[in-house]
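Please, is this right?
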Amino acid sequence: MSSSFFGLRNPVKLVIAIVVCNLAGFLGSFVTQTGPGSWYAQLVKPEINPPSFVFAPVWTTLFILMGIALYLVWMEGTNRWVVRRALTIFGVQLGLNVLWSYAFFGFQSPLLGLIDIVALWFAIIATIVVFYRVNRTAAYLLIPYLLWVTFAAFLNYRILVLNLMIFMPSI
């Protein structure tokens, strides 16, 4: 039986998994400007848009949950085909997560952001399905992420619609 730390088989892998997921948020933060005078601050936002200070703690929590889920699947053994497939799909959705910040904020395009977040939503569903086959707890840990991205997709869509005239060239 392998030794454990607080019941963890490999705490180093847990830390790596959580850091990798939070790194995605860090990479996205390079282009995410929401303060006064920013492009985002000038947009019309839906009435249910949360205040800016809500996003960082929510995303940090979600990235930690994603990291724990990643760890649980990773610990099932990368020698198994289903685990490798699950990790690959997870990597795709994590990449789409980072890409959203660049599409929406970097290119200042709610349309590109919406296209990306719809793809991200489906990638999260695929990740949950394949994680469920490997480790059910890991799949369940991704449900808050799916719910938040569903909400974020709605916000993205509403921002696009509310600001459509800004994005359309004048005729």
